[in-house]
Design a protein that fits this description.
Organism: Shinella oryzae
Largest sheet: 4 strands, parallel
Order of helices and strands: HHEHHHEHEHHHEHH
Number of helices: 11
Shape: globular
Radius of gyration: 17 Å
Structural class: alpha/beta
Protein name: Uracil-DNA glycosylase family protein
Number of strands: 4
Length: 214
Amino acid sequence: MNEAANPEDLAALRVAIAACRLCREAPARAGDVLPHEPRPVAVISSTARILIAGQAPGLRVHESGLPFNDASGDRLRDWLGVDRAAFYDPDRFAIVPMGLCFPGYDAHGSDLPPRRECAPFWRARIMTTMPQVELVLAIGQYAQAWHLGAAKAASMTETVRDWHRHLGRNEAPAVLPLPHPSWRNTGWLKRNPWFEAEILPELRSRVKRLMTEI
C-alpha cells in the first residue's frame, strides 16, 4: 500500500479548492469567463484507495454539491457494485473530476468540456496530496488524456478496449479507463458488449478488494 496522505495538506487543499475563482478571474482564453459563480465539487480523501476521475460536474451536481448525484451516478454505482452509502464514503472513494466546476452549456444544450484552466492548475497537486490512491478510474477522454498521457489511444473506445495494457503498466497508481456512464452512452454500450462482459467483472473485483482492505 502507498504512503498515507497528510491530513493537514488535505485540509489546506480543500480550503484552496473551495475558494478557487480561476475560471472567473484568470480564464485560459481571454473573455472566456465562467458565466456563473464557481462551485468546485471534489471529494479529497486521506484514506480512499480508489479515485474516480470524471469529466466535470453537470448542472444537478453544481446545484447539490454532490458528485455524480444524477442518473450517470446511478449507472456508475451499478458498474462499481456499490450502493450510495459506500460511494459517498470518503474513506473508500475520492471523487475529483478534471474540471472542478460546472462549465455551462454549449449552443446545443450539451455540457461544455472541462474548463481549460482547471487541470493544469490543480491536478498534479491533488494527486500528490493523495499518495495512498492505488486505482484511478479514468472516466472519459479528458481524464484518460491526463492520467494515461501518451498511452491514450486516438479514440475513447480504443483506449477502453486496451484496458488490460493500461492496468498492466508497471506504474502507480493503476489506471482503468472507462466510458462516461451517461445515459447518452447507452448506444455505445450496446455496440460494445465486451465492456460489460470483460471490464465490469474486473472493475467490481478490484473495487471490492480495495474497499475491504481499508
